[in-house]
Amino acid sequence: MKLSRAIPWALLLSTATVFSTIWNKGNCGGVLTDPMGRFFNYMGPKTVCTWTILMKPGQRVAVATPFLNLSCNEDYMEIQDGLPGSRSYGKICGGYGLSYCSSSNVMTIKYYRKSNYPASKFNVYFYGETKVREIEGVFTDFGQGHRLLRNEATSVWTMLMRPTQDVTLGSPSLK
User: Fold this and answer.
1) Sequential DSSP letters for the chain
2) Is residue 55 domain-resident?
3) Domains: count for the chain
4) Which of 36, 47, 93, 166 could form a disulfide with 72 if both were Cys (CB 3.0 to 4.6 A apart)?
């Protein structure tokens, strides 16, 4: 699931100094269990690096990278939603402000490169995020003032409409 771009960056950049001691120093993979941190490109001879990020039960893993510019043919990154071998978000080669969130407390990130290709530079920031309770439903009675969102929950609603009906969605101002 992709995250809103502003939230992970505000959180990561505001805490960067405090947690600088737990940031990875460029190792080729490993298991990361800190509540937040960073890892970056490995410059040695290995061509596949696998980082598995583990958070406490009840949390999800959020990762973000400010800039990614990999060749796709010679090197790329793969993000898996869980332990190694889990569902993949696919081959990721480039972009600005990329962010992803796991569905559980585990996420795996792999970096692949061809042996004759120099390692590209990248930074990946990660942190644990408390899972949010989800509310789902279906409704067909569209009277005035339905309140769909509840505190500390996200909502997913299916709205069944007649072809001639319009829907207007609004949100109260955020405080």
Assistant:
1) -BPPSHHHHHHHHHTTTTTGGGS--S-S-EEE-SSEEEEE---SS-SEEEEEEE--TTEEEEEEEEEEE--SSSEEEEEESSSTTS-EEEEE-EEEEEEEE-SSSEEEEEEEE-TTSPPPP-EEEEEEEE--EEEEEEE----TT-----TTEEEEEEE---TT-------PPP-
2) yes
3) 1
4) 93
| Contact between 63 and 79 (Cβ < 8 Å) | yes
Q: Amino acid letter at 173? A: S
Task: Identify the pLDDT of residue 155.
Answer: 52
Task: Give the domain CATH number at 23.
Answer: 2.60.120.290
Mean pLDDT taken over the chain:
77
Q: Which residue segment(s) compose the domain that 84 sits in?
A: 6-130
pLDDT tens profile 23-79: 555 689 999 999 999 999 888 899 999 999 999 999 999 999 999 999 999 999 999
Q: Say whether pLDDT at 7 is over 90.
A: no
Which residue is it, tokens 């809103």?
Answer: 4
